[in-house]
Design brief:
With 120 residues, this protein is an all-alpha fold. 83% of the residues lie in helices and 0% in strands. The radius of gyration is 18 Å and the shape is globular.
Length: 120
């Protein structure tokens, strides 16, 4: 239960820091504040990644839950990146980093799938 609470808290902190860094209302104009939030965002991303890699299923039910959560997160990530590419393309040009991230996600998924099939 404690690891689930830590995962929830780190996930919420990560999302809050993302929202603060985006700063849609221009409330955090000072550069020092933005850089501090960026540093906290990087730290929260590291903690979040650490929690994700530490997850281990204790039984088949938990393994299925982790599998489903990972699969839906991946599909949501791909869908949101494609949506961002479409929206930015209609606005006059998409940021190339969106393409790099999407390609990276697909390549890593394919590489891990191939590696897993060879290994097992």
């Amino acid at each position: 239960m404690l690891s689930n609470l830590a995962e929830i808290l780190v996930s919420l902190a990560f999302v809050v820091l993302l929202a603060l860094k985006l700063d849609p209302l221009d409330l955090l104009m000072p550069n020092k504040v933005q850089m501090s939030i960026l540093a906290l965002l990087v730290a929260a991303a590291g903690l979040y990644a650490g929690i994700l890699f530490r997850q281990k299923a204790r039984d088949e039910r938990e393994a299925l839950h982790l599998y489903r959560a990972s699969r839906f997160a991946y599909v949501a990530g791909v869908a949101l990146l494609v949506l961002a590419i479409v929206v930015q393309s209609f606005r006059g040009g998409a940021d190339p980093w969106l393409f790099y991230i999407l390609a990276g996600m697909v390549i890593v998924k394919l590489a891990i799938l191939i590696w897993s099939r060879i290994r097992n």
